[in-house]
TrEMBL record:
Protein name: Leucyl aminopeptidase
One family name in Pfam for this protein: Peptidase_M17
GO cellular component, one term: cytoplasm
Family affiliation: Belongs to the peptidase M17 family.
InterPro entries in the record: Leucine_aapep/pepB, Macro_dom-like, Peptidase_M17_C, Peptidase_M17_N_1
GO biological process: proteolysis
GO molecular function, one term: manganese ion binding
Keyword terms: Aminopeptidase, Hydrolase, Manganese, Protease
Domain Cytosol aminopeptidase: 312-319
Length: 465
C-alpha cells in the first residue's frame, strides 16, 4: 500500500520564523516587556493569550517577523490537546521555531502535535501539500518524536483505507512492508491451513469471505524481555448472518483498528530500538455472509480446547482474538497487550476519545495511566469484574460469545478474552474505537491511534528496560 510520507522536522540550519508561546496567565506582564509597536498591534488585534489564538507580527517590510500563539491556562490545556497544532494549521507554509517557557513534557507535546497536524489521507482524492515545517525544539529527542508520528501515520493510513483495498491479504502486505523496514521476520498461516495448525475460530469467522482468513505472526529482536502485541484484524464486519443494519456497517472498515494500532506501536518500538523481543499477532479476516458462514447456535472449539456457543455472529472479534491469545499464552511472554475495536458498550461508557483498558495488574495499570496523562493519550481503567463471569457461561458450552441482557458488554467481552490468557504474568486488553468523529488539533476526522503512545511511553518502566 502507499503510505503517507512520514513527517520530519526541518533542518536545523534553515532560517525559521519564531513562534512565541504566550500563556494567558501573566499576559499583561509579558506585554509590558514588549516595545510600543508590538503592544499596539497586539491590543488592536485583541490578542490576550487565550488558548489557540494566533497573531502574526509584521516586520517593517510587512513580512511576518514572528508569530504569537496563545497558550491559555491550565484548564484550557486540559480541555484541548496539541495547541501548537493550531499554529501549524493556521500558518500553512514556511519554516518555524517554537519559543517559550514550557516543561519538557509540554515541549514534546507541542513538537509532536505540529508533526501530527501535517497528516492528510490523499490516496483517493486530492494531494498532500507540504505544510509549515518546524525546527525541533531544543532538549527533545527529535528522532523519537518522528518515530512516534510515523507510527501514528501508519495506523491512520491502515484504518482509513477502505476494505476494497485493505482485506486480509493487504493487511498481510502492510505487515511484510513494516518487517522489511526493520529487519523483522513474518510467518503467515492462511485459509484451510488454519485448521491444520489449530486456529479453528479464526478459520470459522473468516471462511465465508473471498479473501482467505489468516494469522499473521511478526517477530523482531533477539534479547531482552518479550512483549506480545495482539491486534484484531477484522478488515470488514458485515455482522455475518446476524447482519448489521446499513447505518452500523458504514464504519466497519475500521474494525481492524486494533491491528493498525499495534502495527503503529510496533514501528515506534523498532524504529527507536527498544531492547526487547517483540512479537505481533494479527488474526486477519473478513466477517462475511455466504453459505459456509458460521451460524448462530454453532458451537466452536477454540485453540485451547474451550468450547464457545455462538449466540451472535456479530460478536466475532473476540473469537479470532481468542485463538491468537491462546497461541501467545503457550509460551508466556513477560507482557501481553491486546488491542481491538471490540464493543459498542465501551463507546457508550467513555465515548470516542478515551481508550478503556482492562488488567488485573495494579502496577501496570498505574504505569499506563501515568503515561497516558504524560503524553496526552488518555486512558481509562475498566474492571475485570469476576462476578460477571457467569454471564459468559451458557451451560451448553464453556463460553458464550454474546451474552443476552445487554449489561456490561465491554466487561463481559474482556472476561471472555481473559479465559485464553492463563499463564502470561502481565496482560492488558484495550477496547478502542480507532476513529475520530470530529476534527481536532493534530487529529483530523478519520482513523486514529488510541493507547499506542501511552504504551510506548510506559514500556521502559513496565519492562525495566
Amino acid at each position: 500500500m502507499t503510505q503517507t510520507e512520514p513527517p520530519r522536522f526541518a533542518a536545523p540550519d534553515l532560517r525559521a520564523t519564531p513562534v512565541r508561546i504566550v500563556p494567558k496567565g501573566g499576559f499583561d506582564d509579558w506585554l509590558a516587556t514588549q516595545d510600543e509597536p508590538v503592544r499596539d498591534w497586539v491590543e488592536a488585534n485583541g490578542f490576550d493569550g487565550a488558548a489557540g489564538q494566533i497573531l502574526r507580527l509584521p516586520a517593517p517590510d510587512m513580512s511576518v517577523a514572528r508569530v504569537l500563539l496563545g497558550w491559555g491556562g491550565a484548564k484550557d490545556r486540559a480541555r484541548s490537546r496539541f495547541l501548537a497544532a493550531q499554529a501549524a494549521t493556521a500558518l500553512k507554509t514556511g519554516t518555524y521555531a517554537l519559543d517559550g517557557d514550557l516543561t519538557a513534557n509540554e515541549w514534546e507535546e507541542a513538537a509532536l502535535g505540529w508533526l501530527l497536524s501535517s497528516y492528510r489521507f490523499s490516496r483517493y482524492a486530492g494531494k498532500s501539500e507540504p505544510g509549515p515545517q518546524l525546527r525541533a525544539p531544543r532538549g527533545i529527542d527529535a528522532a523519537r518524536i518522528e518515530a512516534i508520528a510515523a507510527g501514528e501515520f501508519l495506523t491512520r493510513d491502515l484504518i482509513n483505507t477502505p476494505a476494497s483495498d485493505m482485506g486480509p491479504d493487504a493487511l498481510e502486505a502492510a505487515v511484510r512492508d513494516l518487517a522489511r523496514t526493520h529487519g523483522a521476520e513474518v510467518s503467515v498461516t492462511t485459509g484451510d491451513d488454519l485448521l491444520t495448525a489449530n486456529f479453528p475460530m479464526i478459520h470459522a469467522v473468516g471462511r465465508a469471505a473471498d479473501r482467505a482468513p489468516r494469522l499473521i505472526d511478526m517477530r523482531w529482536g533477539d534479547s531482552g524481555p518479550e512483549l506480545v502485541l495482539v491486534g484484531k484484524g477484522v478488515c470488514f464486519d458485515t455482522g455475518g448472518l446476524n447482519l448489521k443494519p446499513g447505518a452500523s456497517m458504514g464504519l466497519m472498515k475500521k474494525d481492524m483498528g486494533g491491528a493498525a494500532t499495534v502495527l503503529g506501536l510496533a514501528h515506534m518500538i523498532m524504529a527507536t530500538g527498544l531492547p526487547l523481543r517483540l512479537r505481533v499477532l494479527i488474526p486477519a479476516v473478513e466477517n462475511s455472509v455466504a453459505g459456509n458462514a458460521f451460524r448462530p447456535g454453532d458451537i466452536l472449539t477454540a485453540r485451547n480446547g474451550l468450547t464457545v456457543e455462538i449466540n451472535n455472529t456479530d460478536a466475532e472479534g473476540r473469537l479470532v482474538l481468542a485463538d491468537a491469545l491462546a497461541l501467545a499464552d503457550e509460551t508466556p511472554p513477560d507482557l501481553m497487550i491486546c488491542m481491538a475495536t471490540l464493543t459498542g458498550a465501551a463507546r457508550v461508557a467513555v465515548g470516542p476519545d478515551l481508550a478503556p483498558f482492562f488488567t488485573d495488574d495494579d502496577a501496570l495499570a498505574m504505569a499506563l495511566q501515568q503515561a497516558g496523562r504524560r503524553v496526552r493519550d488518555p486512558l481509562w481503567r475498566m474492571p475485570f469484574h469476576r462476578p460477571y463471569e457467569t454471564m459468559i457461561e451458557p451451560g451448553i458450552a464453556d463460553l458464550d460469545n454474546a451474552p443476552s441482557g445487554g449489561f456490561a458488554g465491554s466487561i463481559t467481552a474482556a472476561l471472555f478474552l481473559d479465559r485464553f490468557v492463563q499463564d502470561t504474568p502481565r496482560f492488558a486488553h484495550f477496547d478502542i474505537y480507532g476513529w475520530n468523529p470530529t476534527a481536532a488539533p493534530a487529529r483530523p476526522k478519520g482513523g486514529v491511534g488510541m493507547g499506542a503512545r501511552a504504551l510506548f511511553d510506559a514500556l521502559p518502566k513496565v519492562l525495566d528496560l
